[in-house]
Design brief:
25% strand; disordered N terminus; 3-stranded antiparallel beta sheet; 7 helices; 277 residues; alpha+beta; 32% helix; flat
Length: 277
Amino acid sequence: MRIVTNLKVPAALLAASLVIAACSEKASPLAEEVEAVSVPGAPPEGAEELVARGAQASDERQSDELVEFAYAYPVEAARIAKLAAWLDNDRETKREALIAAARRDRTAAEKGGFPYRQHSHLQKWERVTDTPRFLSLSSEIATYTGGAHGMLSFDSLIWDRTRARLLRPMDLFTSSDAFDRAAKDDLCARLNKAKERKGIEWDRSADGPFGECPVPSAQTVWIGSSDGKHLDRLTIAIAPYEVGPWAEGSYRVNLPMSRAIVDAVKPEFAREFLPLN
């Protein structure tokens, strides 16, 4: 088995080591800061936040006969202690699920007398935008579980610095229905053009398997910024099989940040959005 890791040290463990180092005659400035915020009565997350400031991007990989696994996230996420902890937990949950499923399938293959094919989960989080309030992340996930071909899917996360909480894009809107009403016409029109660029005529007949326009909120929504201050960009990622056969592939459809979409935003977030003029 080959495991390659960036050797990211858990925040709590590193904080403890820094406190010990602070007791020496040549304690580092960071160690002294960590010691200062670790006194009784101090916020419990203070030391972890200090350590997180120096964190690096995370990129963990594992490859052996059973599985291939990769999970990465950027430095901006690594330097938010609570977000990094959530991502680390998500990584280990998915790694364990992959290994468990692979072991079951390998056992079944051995009993059935057919070859086992290595399972995989390859996921990379990337920064969409980083505004004073929000860190927006996108993710592409490639998986393979022994079938005729692998699958591609997408994910999206938003970290709200003001409230120190993890959000999904639809959490920013008054409701999924409100977002769908505001975005659906633009999505349908732009998806049709995206298909035309691939040389595909979209069969919109009622009895066709992919005749209906996809529901925007049921897809993966990525929200970005052009000025680093306001949310004014919107992309909807559509996985294979959603609007066409697997061979047609996936789509990433950019939508205008219309006034209708901004009007569907919850009042507490409205000032963070900038509609297209």
